[in-house]
Amino acid sequence: MAAPMPSCFSSCCFPSKPNTLISTTNFLSPFSCSTINGYRGISMGGAGFRSRTYAKFDKFQGDPSQPYLEEIASSSLEAKQQTVPEEEELEEDDSCLPSDLEGAVRQSGQASALFVSSGGMRAIVELLIPQLQFLDDEGAQAELWELSRIFLDTLIEETGCQKVKAVFPDAGAAALLKYRWKDAAFRFSSLSDRKPIENEDEIIVMVVPDYQMLASVERIASELSDDPPRPLIMWNPRLISEDVGVGVNVRKLRRYFLSSFSTVYSMRPLASGAVFRCYPGLWKVFYDDKDRRGRYLLAKELISKPDADDLEMIFGNEENKAEQNPTFLSQVAGIFSSLNRFMKAISK
Predict the structure, then answer these.
(1) In terms of Cα–Cα distance, which of 211, 208, 207 is closest to 243?
(2) Four-point Cα dihedral 218, 309, 294, 290, nearest 10
(3) 55, exposed or middle or buried, with CB in 10 Å at 0-12, 13-18, 19+?
(4) How far from chain centre, in Å, is Cα 141?
(5) Mean of the pLDDT values across residues 107-118?
(6) Predicted confidence band at 112 (pLDDT cuts at 50, 70, 90)?
(7) Structure pTM?
(8) Which of 48, 117, 138, 140 has the CA that lies 20 to 30 A from 303?
(9) Which residue has the higher pLDDT, 200 or 28?
(10) Burial group, residue 134, by CB count within 10 angstroms (0-12, 13-18, 19+)
(11) Model pLDDT, residue 343
(12) Stretch 234-241: mean pLDDT, rounded?
């Protein structure tokens, strides 16, 4: 017999209340994600809105050039002119993709809430984009914390649970954010605390747990598996290290531990496409639409996460031959170029 869920999940129902958080990203139009298995993703339009265009946003790296600005204006005009009633609009392959980074974070919060309310216990959310990977850059951590706040607020709003515990990598970050976010609806702790979780905590979110704290992560996960079990969500974990000093057996143990989690949300730009998953949907592999800049075509859907061999088969041998030995600079340029395309115009 399954263990009873925490009391707060009695209010976990969908569709949820309208999202009251305010986006700081400029949109040209409301964004709506397609319905999957009866579950609607991000919805930012009012009930009376009868037509839809996809949002478009600026490049993340550097200032847009004048030709690019002109292209945005032109595309925006075309999108408005081509807007058709929603009931007559055909779904595009890439209509499930988020319109911007903040939208992706909200979407990941909704997917996590649905997973938890469906009885899921261990979840991973991964946003594998350079902007959230290079945490040593000035201001990168501050932006990461703000995005984690959006995720936590969305999770609370969607589940209705008021006993969410956010576990940050270190005590300094937890103390600073607790001081700044006095109005937060969740509780604070850190992996370095003597007792990071308490009996009254019902959903635990680990924010960017680092591989150096893996022992603490595993200990907490084990505690949460006791009766009654409580959900654990790892948001953008960094638990895999390829350092030379890390033994093969240790890496295998880490991967074995991570295999007990379900990836409920994943966004990974590639040099010529993207990999995406939003629970409860399948894994989707997209490739660039050569005829429409900034758009994607669906290459394949998979039940499990695609590995390197899967991607090689999907994208084809010819393209892989052209990129067999890319230089480090070309790899970096390809990732950032893909990020720009992935986070750019999704407009008709």
Answers:
(1) 211
(2) 180
(3) buried
(4) 17
(5) 98
(6) very high
(7) 0.69
(8) 117
(9) 200
(10) exposed
(11) 58
(12) 84
